[in-house]
Structures are given as structure tokens and as C-alpha cells.
């Protein structure tokens, strides 16, 4: 079985230079899984924090599943725990603190029936880097349409 992409954070590649990618699992409830299967999820504005040797994603919006009964404690923008090995979390925490890098959620997808989150370890781009990215994109678009 391959992977089926549910949601992507397109702004992450524009705002950050991604140095490394890591795959992580998520702790979710049943209605949340059904909402993810219906693609009612957004990674816009979400970010990852490390607290007490555990990794969490904040502000990831998963719409309430309309056909499920209400389950207490399940909010749309609640903090969700990420499943990573302790060594991975320690290494990420060191890199974030020492090298001033950020942990960014890149995409959410199904892999072998499980929901996975791709995390990017990245460095924020400066304004001139963003302008250069826009120039490259426009040039590629012009070459593609042959309107030089």
C-alpha cells in the first residue's frame, strides 16, 4: 500500500528552508480519523513544540465529524501528541535550541492505514530569499508557457 496525502502545508516551503524531514505518528480519536478521511483537516498556522520530552502539534484544525456523537475533550484545534522515539525527540530538541531551527508540519497522510505527519526541521527564510523564490517560480512558469 502506498501513501495517500490528506493535507499539505504549502506555505512552509515558502517561509522556511527545510533541512530534514521526519515521519511521526499522531494520537487521535475515532471521530478525528473519520474527519481526516473526509479531508476536513488543515495544517495552516499549526506548529510543533517539545515539552517535557514529548512532542506536540498545536493549532492543527480537524473539523468535528458531523455523524458522530459528541465526545468530551475533543475540540477542533486541541493540542495533539506526536509519536516519536525518545532519541529522536532529544536530537530534535538539541537542534532546535542550539541551531535556532523550527519544527514545521509539512504534510498529513495515510501510510499503510495509519495517519502520519511529516515534520520538517527548517530555518526561517529572510525576505530577500522569499523574493528570489518568487522570481524562480515566475521564470519557470514563463519557460513552461514559452512566453519569454
TrEMBL record:
Keyword Membrane on entry: no
Biological process terms in GO annotation: trans-translation; trans-translation-dependent protein tagging
UniProt main location, coarse: cytoplasm
Gene3D superfamilies recorded: 2.40.280.10
Gene Ontology cellular component annotations, sorted alphabetically: cytosol
GO molecular function: RNA binding
Membrane spanning stretches: none
Keywords: Cytoplasm, RNA-binding
InterPro entries, A to Z: SmpB, SsrA-bd_prot, SsrA-bd_prot_CS
Protein's cellular compartments: Cytoplasm
UniProt key word RNA-binding: yes
CDD domains named among the record's database cross-references: SmpB (cd09294)
Biological role: Required for rescue of stalled ribosomes mediated by trans-translation. Binds to transfer-messenger RNA (tmRNA), required for stable association of tmRNA with ribosomes. tmRNA and SmpB together mimic tRNA shape, replacing the anticodon stem-loop with SmpB. tmRNA is encoded by the ssrA gene; the 2 termini fold to resemble tRNA(Ala) and it encodes a 'tag peptide', a short internal open reading frame. During trans-translation Ala-aminoacylated tmRNA acts like a tRNA, entering the A-site of stalled ribosomes, displacing the stalled mRNA.
NCBIfam families the UniProt entry points to: PRK05422.1, smpB
Similarity-based family: Belongs to the SmpB family.
Record's protein name: SsrA-binding protein
Organism: Williamsoniiplasma lucivorax
Name of the gene encoding the protein in the UniProt record: smpB
Amino acid at each position: 500500500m502506498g501513501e495517500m496525502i490528506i493535507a499539505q502545508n504549502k506555505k512552509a516551503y515558502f517561509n522556511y528552508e527545510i533541512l530534514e524531514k521526519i515521519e511521526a505518528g499522531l494520537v487521535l480519536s475515532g471521530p478525528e480519523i473519520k474527519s481526516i478521511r473526509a479531508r476536513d483537516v488543515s495544517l495552516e498556522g499549526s506548529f510543533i513544540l517539545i515539552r517535557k520530552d514529548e512532542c506536540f502539534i498545536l493549532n492543527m484544525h480537524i473539523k468535528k465529524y458531523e455523524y458522530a456523537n459528541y465526545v468530551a475533550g475533543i475540540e477542533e484545534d486541541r493540542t495533539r501528541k506526536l509519536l516519536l522515539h525518545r532519541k529522536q525527540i532529544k536530537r530534535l530538541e538539541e537542534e532546535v535550541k542550539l541551531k535556532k531551527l523550527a519544527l514545521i508540519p509539512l504534510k498529513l497522510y495515510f501510510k499503510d492505514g495509519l495517519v502520519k505527519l511529516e515534520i520538517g526541521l527548517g530555518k526561517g527564510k529572510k525576505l530577500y530569499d522569499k523574493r528570489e523564490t518568487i522570481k524562480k517560480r515566475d521564470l519557470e512558469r514563463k519557460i513552461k508557457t514559452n512566453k519569454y
